UniProtKB/TrEMBL annotation, chain A:
Record domain ABC transporter: where: 6-236
Source species taxonomy: Bacteria, Pseudomonadati, Bacteroidota, Bacteroidia, Marinilabiliales
Alphabetic keyword roster: ATP-binding, Nucleotide-binding, Translocase, Transport
SUPFAM superfamilies in alphabetical order: P-loop containing nucleoside triphosphate hydrolases (SSF52540)
Family statement drawn from the similarity comment of this UniProt entry: Belongs to the ABC transporter superfamily. Macrolide exporter (TC 3.A.1.122) family.
A Pfam short name: ABC_tran
Protein name from the UniProt record: Putative ABC transport system ATP-binding protein
Coiled coil feature spans: none
Recorded superkingdom: Bacteria
Segments crossing the lipid bilayer: none
Gene Ontology cellular component list: membrane protein complex
Gene3D superfamilies reported for this sequence: P-loop containing nucleotide triphosphate hydrolases (3.40.50.300)
GO MF terms held by the record: ATP binding; ATP hydrolysis activity; transmembrane transporter activity
Length: 237, 406
């Protein structure tokens, strides 16, 4: 049996806006195995980000169960959720979200600053290693404004990797990049996946989904398709 | 998260926006600088008043005629005749805690020597007077009890008088001066004492036996005031009581009658003036404290703006595992670093300003450790107090909304 990183069952999420209730997720169930590269697709407003935020322990479901690496996330307190985000999850955002006027190295170190178990020396080593993994060993001292968009996203990916998470979550991580750079970044995700990282990637572009090995399609808060990509595209770095 | 990581995060976040950090600090810097400077000036004036009053005499107790009248017309005390030599003997007999005792009669007028003359005051006193007033003889000798009994025509000149009457004379001792036509032989010159607290020249004086002044110059039998020294500071109060009792007995005052004399000690004088300058210090400190408060409000204001401006940063920190309390601590830490750092600058600047002003304007300034410690503690408290609310706001942000914030 392969290890199930994510198990969600009948996941629901409602938002109250005034007197209206918006059902962003209406009973979503699926599992993600260790080492899978899953893309979540769907039209705008279909609930992709809502789902990813719950997967990333940034948000809690209104109903349903979510087991992350054996932990029932639905029952955790705010601080425990922060701990989960810090130890088990790596997040990559569409808009990079790097700290301005801060070197790449220090940006990557950030998650470890919130982990008292990591000494300053270990922190530096781990951050260097993560930057090497994303191919930015020679840009460690550069601030975000001295880096290209693709390089900035690589720094953000290094930051997502630095705590050795059980899975990396990305929300439209290539949304701000041109097609050539998008290819680079997808290649990097594939490389990470081939090294064993579980990846969940939200996108609304079909081509991008083709680089993953499984695609889940959402529509109005429900799964309408869940299929394995037979003809998975490989990008060779 | 460790305190070390926390301070590192806070310092880095502040270093990322040095101008904002500096401007926030500025309010505190100005506040603390003014607190330190104002307190230094206040304390300085207090101390110099105390020193000057102490230098006026040794545990001195003064008796003047007249009562502490509440309302009603007050007579010029020097024209009252209620103190006599009998009172002096009464005090000598009853007040055991005194180490020195001297009457005083004084008269103003022109003193003449050869071609020059000088307006001054001649004080008729006893031999003990020098000790009571902490005066010293620079040249020559003090008159003795024997000369007092004889009402000898001798005197000692203060430095100012000596200089003005005998500008060219080497040896003033042995010269003769005339006061109201009475020739007085100069047997000594007093050591310089300088100005007192009230700006009077303490060297513009002539001392002579009180008997001489009473009989030969003023033709009176009463005395104008009595000066005494208590044996020590501790018995000063007791000595004052004994003097009062002796005088009441000697004046045969009934129990319900008020004193017709006035006993005051140097200590009381110090206390009176100290409390005045303490008020001044308090007032100056309060004004400066208000500017510190304004500085604190400045911190709060800029922190609020900064929390809004840094919403995405906060969102990111939450997303990578920062807990609410980590964010709270970071912002509090930033506020405390700003205020304590501003406090440090302020203390240095305040010291420089206080001593610089003291030097330039010739003001006495005293910087107490206490005022430094207090400003520092106040700074930290201001930082925590005014940083708390914005920090709470930052910590309460929802990570998703914070990340999405434009
Ligand atoms: N905080 C919120 N309050 C109210 N409604 C919300 C909130 N967040 C999301 N929604 C609603 O939930 C639904 C799903 O939103 P979600 O952001 O998950 O869509 P998405 O699939 O990520 O869309 P996009 O591709 O445009 O990013 C939308 O109808 C949205 O309006
Ligand atoms: Mg979205």
């Amino acid at each position: 049996m392969e290890n199930k990183i994510i198990r969600i069952a009948s996941l629901e999420r409602e938002f109250s806006v005034g007197i209206e209730t918006i059902h962003a997720l209406k009973g979503v169930s699926f599992d993600v195995l260790e080492g899978e590269f899953v893309t979540i697709m769907g039209a705008s407003g279909s609930g992709k980000s809502t789902l990813l935020n719950i997967l990333g322990a940034l948000d809690r479901p209104s109903a349903g169960d979510y087991l992350l690496d054996g932990t029932n996330v639905g029952t955790l307190t705010k601080d425990q959720l922060a701990g989960i985000r810090n130890r088990k999850i790596g997040f990559v955002f569409q808009s990079f979200n790097l700290l301005a006027r801060t070197s790449a190295l220090e940006n990557v170190e950030l998650p470890l600053m919130y982990n008292a178990k990591v000494s300053p020396r270990e922190r530096r080593e781990m951050a260097c290693q993560a930057l090497e993994t994303v191919g930015l060993a020679d840009r460690m001292g550069h601030a975000p404004n001295q880096l290209s968009g693709g390089q900035q996203q690589r720094v953000a990916i290094a930051r997502a990797l630095v705590n050795d998470p059980v899975m990396v979550l990305a929300d439209e991580a290539t949304g701000n990049l041109d097609s050539k750079t998008t290819l680079d970044i997808m290649g990097l995700f594939q490389k990470l996946n081939s090294e064993g990282k579980t990846i969940v990637f939200v996108t609304h572009e079909n081509e991008i989904a083709e680089y993953s090995n499984r695609t889940i399609v959402l529509k109005d808060g429900e799964i309408v398709k869940d299929y394995t990509n037979q003809g998975r595209q490989a990008i060779l770095d | 998260m460790t305190v070390f990581n926390l301070s590192k995060i806070a310092v880095k976040a502040m270093a990322r926006n040095k101008m904002r950090t500096f401007l926030t600090m500025l309010g505190i810097i100005i506040g603390v600088t003014s607190v330190i400077t104002m307190l230094a000036i206040g304390q300085g004036s207090k101390q110099s008043i105390q020193e000057q009053i102490s230098s006026m005499g040794a545990n001195m107790i003064m008796v003047h005629p007249g009562s502490d009248m509440r309302g009603g017309v007050r007579m010029d005390p020097s024209s009252m005749k209620s103190l006599t030599l009998d009172d002096l003997s009464a005090i000598r007999r009853y007040a055991a805690q005194l180490s020195a005792l001297s009457p005083m009669v004084s008269s103003g007028g022109q003193v003449i020597a050869g071609g020059s003359n000088w307006p001054t005051t001649i004080q008729g006193v006893g031999e003990d007077f020098l000790m009571i007033r902490k005066m010293e003889v620079a040249e020559g000798v003090m008159f003795t009890d024997y000369e007092v009994k004889r009402a000898a025509k001798v005197c000692l000149l203060g430095q100012t008088v000596a200089e003005n009457l005998f500008p060219d004379v080497e040896d003033v001792v042995g010269q003769t001066v005339r006061f109201k036509n009475i020739p007085l032989k100069v047997i000594g010159v007093l050591a310089a004492k300088g100005q007192n607290t009230f700006g009077q020249d303490q060297d513009d004086v002539i001392l002579a036996p009180y008997t001489t002044i009473q009989k030969r110059i003023m033709a009176i039998t009463h005395i104008q005031s009595i000066y005494a020294s208590a044996e020590s500071e501790g018995v000063s109060e007791q000595a004052e009581k004994e003097i009062t009792m002796a005088l009441r007995a000697s004046h045969s005052l009934a129990d319900d009658e008020e004193d017709d004399f006035n006993v005051r000690s140097q200590q009381e004088l110090i206390n009176t003036f100290s409390s005045t300058s303490e008020m001044l210090t308090l007032l100056l400190g309060a004004i400066a404290g208000i500017s510190l408060l304004v500085g604190g409000i400045g911190i709060m204001n800029i922190m609020f703006v900064s929390v809004t401006e840094r919403t995405r940063e906060i969102g990111l920190r939450l997303a990578v595992g920062g807990r609410g309390r980590d964010i709270l601590s970071q912002f509090l830490m930033e506020a405390v670093i700003v205020s304590v750092g501003g406090g440090l600058f302020g203390v240095l600047l305040g010291l420089a300003l206080a001593y610089g002003m003291g030097n330039m304007l010739d003001w006495p300034v005293v910087v107490t450790n206490q005022s430094i410690v207090i400003s520092f503690v106040v700074c930290a408290v201001v930082g925590i107090f005014f940083g708390w609310y914005p920090a709470r706001k930052a910590a309460g942000l929802d990570p998703i909304e914070a990340l999405r914030y434009e």
